[in-house]
Amino acid sequence: MGVSKTSKATIFLGFLWLNLFQSVVGRFVVEKNSLRVVSPDVIKGTYDSAIGNFGIPQYGGSIPGTVVYPKENRKGCRNFEDSGTSFKSKSGAMPTFVLVDRGDCFFALKVWNAQNAGAAAVLVADDVDERLITMDSPEADGSSAKYIENITIPSALIEKSFAEKLKKVVNAGEMVNVNLDWREAVPHPDDRVEYELWTSSNDECGFKCDMLMKYVKDFKGAAQILEKGGYTQFTPHYITWYCPQAFTVSKQCKSQCINHGRYCAPDPEQDFSSGYEGKDVVVENLRQLCVFKVANETNKPWVWWDYVTDFQIRCPMKEKKYNKECADTVIKSLGLDSRKIEKCMGDPNADEDNPVLKEEQDAQASFFIFP
After folding, report:
1. 45: which residues sit within 8 A by CB, 6+ positions away?
2. Per-residue pLDDT reduced to its tens digit, 116-147
3. Closest CA to 310 of 300, 320, 321
4. Cis peptide before 70 (omega within 30 of 0)
5. What are phi and psi of 224, to 5 degrees?
6. Virtual torsion, Cα 15, 19, 23, 25, nearest 10 deg
7. From the centroid of its chain, how far is CA 6?
8. CA dihedral sign, ordered 345, 348, 350, 351
9. Which of 66, 247, 254, 323 shows its CA 20 to 30 Å from the CA of 227?
10. What is the pTM of this model?
11. Which domains can be identified in the chain, with CATH numbers?
């Protein structure tokens, strides 16, 4: 994960990657539940699964069941009853959890077809090795609106590696007993949607920076309304790199990093001899993180959107106003406590970790996969 501490080539590839990554990246928090395999012993254990955003998860409870992998219609895109397949449990038997493969049709349609055939829950096997994602429902047009609204069983996406194990034992004739557990699957019990935004304060990287700034300005109004209404919980994030220990005294690292090479950003103009430096971007990114933290402490996290958009307008690089003095005027105009923000930012020249940026790098490592 991250950059090799001994490879000079890697750090410059990292800076290049960061320079290209100046568009907005957002994600919604994946809601997970626990899937526990009770038997057979060969795959016994607890596995993560991602809850679909349709149907009715049994929050606060759990459901036991037996896994079935159909011999036909394994992607679940057709009506199971057309081929005489039924998943209805006999009296006294455990509920049936149908395992279907991802692909060829909407997740919701797979679940709808399995529900109509008597399934108590649906497990969707991912077809690629990746982090779990939320199974989304299609746009509710005339053909899908009715069945989406009438899905009443829970469903979950499972990782490809785990799915392959399940298929192997089911195909071998083993009875696979599992337990779907939602007792800890409440990441937003207050009914708020949680989402994150990965961004940067750099405004001199051409089209991608322009696109980023436009997005933030256009989405600001809706974001603030949702946040003030208690419908969403927003968290901004900023990307940084770090300089290998062997190169912290190099010109490149000194101009692009703070805290002795721990937190870096590419030179805005890709010119080390003029204009702003990468470390200027890191400092402003840090300031914007602290604006969010201080605003959040006063229960007004939406003020972050005001600061970011105002800073873009009043303190652009091309007018040589991308600096602390201009930032302070924006902070003052928004009634934020500048002393708290400065304390939050710490000393960018200190040869030690910055708690705020360290937290960002940890979050970055869990979100992005680097070669």
Report:
1. 36, 37
2. 999 989 999 988 888 877 777 666 555 666 77
3. 321
4. no
5. -70, -40
6. 0
7. 30
8. positive
9. 323
10. 0.55
11. 8-28+189-367 (3.40.30), 32-181 (3.50.30.30)
